[in-house]
Amino acid sequence: MAPSFLLYGSYGYTGRLIAEEALRLGLRPVLAGRNAPRLASQAERLGLDYRVFDLDNPKLIAANLDDLPLVLNCAGPFAATALPLVEACLQSRAHYLDITGELGVFTALAERDTLARQAGVMLLPGVGFDVVPSDCLAVHLKSRLPSATRLTLAFSGAKHASRGTITTALKYLGNTGFTRLNGRLVAVPLAHRTRSIDFGHGPERAASIPWGDLVTAFHSTGIPTIETFMALSLPRYLALRALSWLARQPGVKRFILRRISALPAGPSEAQRLNGQSCFWGEAQDADGQRIEAWLETPEAYTLTASAAVHIAHKALSGCAQPGYQTPASAYGPELVLELPGVRLRCSEQVRAERE
Q1: pLDDT tens, 151-197?
Q2: Do 198 and 146 belong together in one domain?
Q3: Can you say whether residue 332 is alpha, beta or left, with left for phi > 0 and alpha for psi between -120 and 50 degrees?
């Protein structure tokens, strides 16, 4: 079977899950990244081809993409890896996917919409836990309340993070947060707002975070005011605020980053199989109409592997709309319901379950 796409960063925690999921579904990605020994070991174990290259040489990147129709980037922080791969994809006319949740990456790729359309290339970042469920939920809510002017999205259940996720998060820790107000991204303090949110099983404390939907949901729905939250217990909320302050002190962030190497690579298989996440969304309009919806999903990394491969398969099958896309703008709000273990619940269902 011919290679189907390039999987960059394939030997990282999430990259490994995606490579295995791709094989399970009959795809044969070319493994890629900078670390030759890790790639060789992974390729031998999985029986796949691999290519070793870093992202400093644009011509070398493009040469490694010339014979492949699609790149799936799993190498974070994506602020460093996305644009070199995107520029090569535009040159080679290969579609680009990644699993980022970084606001700056979504914004930078959206700015390349015209170039991507001219090249016939789809740029679709955020094809995992960030932001497939929340983007689909946002478009679902917009379809039920077309007059919506305010959107609030939140998630619960992301309890175990990989080393890569923590490393990326720490690079931004200490920086400002963001919200979207009247169509504009506005800088605010990180976790500046807390609120109680019922994710379907009783209220939980949640804190505001600069989730990718501040860019993607605005693109998908046009709703001008958007807030995003993550469920955080009081101890975790206080720890986040403390870490955010510490990360602004000279040398502290570098010290913390060095300590990350001692952490597990990511959630254990048992944690992934037994874990569950929940997304909640609320849309409101100027007349006071308000609707809610919930999504129950598998654990975050399990969902990411499933969603990324599912979307790659769609794109490889010819369903790839040129230009900058979000998961729901490319494939509709039902996309997330095509994934195993996902359930959508509306207000009426939740009320009925509680009665």
Answers
A1: 999 999 766 666 667 566 656 555 678 999 999 999 998 788 889 99
A2: yes
A3: left
In the chain, the number of structural domains is: 2
Claim to verify: residue 78 and residue 219 sit in the same structural domain: no
67 and 148, same structural domain? no
Nearest to 209 by CA among 244, 235, 159, 258: 244
Question: Among residues 76, 88, 97, 66, which one has the least CA distance to residue 3?
Answer: 66
pLDDT tens column, 260-294: 666 677 788 888 888 899 999 999 999 999 999 99
Q: Indicate whether 45 belongs to any domain.
A: yes
Which amino acid type is present at position 327? Answer: P
Contact 50, 20 (CB under 8 A): no
Amino acid at position 81, single letter: T
Q: What are phi and psi of 76, to 5 degrees?
A: -100, 170
Domain for residue 355, yes or no? no
Residue whose structure tokens are 């899950």: 17
Residues 6 or more apart in contact with residue 141 via CB below 8 angstroms: 148, 151, 221, 281, 282, 283, 291, 293
pTM: predicted TM-score of the whole model, two decimal places: 0.91
What sign for the dihedral angle of Cα 211, 216, 220, 225?
positive
Q: Do 89 and 180 belong together in one domain?
A: no
The answer to whether residues 278 and 299 touch, using CB atoms and an 8 Å cutoff, is no
Which residues are registered as beta bridge partners of 276?
298
| Element counts in the chain: helices (H) and strands (E) | 15, 16
Please report whether residue 1 resides in a domain: no
For residue 272, what are the domain limits? 132-300+338-349
Per-residue confidence (pLDDT) for residue 192, from 0 to 100: 84
Residues 6 or more apart whose Cβ sits within 8 Å of residue 239: none
The mean pLDDT value for 141-156 works out to 97
Please tell me whether residues 282 and 143 are part of one structural domain: yes
Q: Mind giving me the DSSP string for 84-133?
A: HHHHHHHHHT-EEEE----HHHHHHHHTTHHHHHHHT-EEE---BTTBHH
Q: How far apart are CA 81 and CA 102, in angstroms?
A: 12
Rounded-to-integer distance, Cα 227 and Cα 225, Å = 7
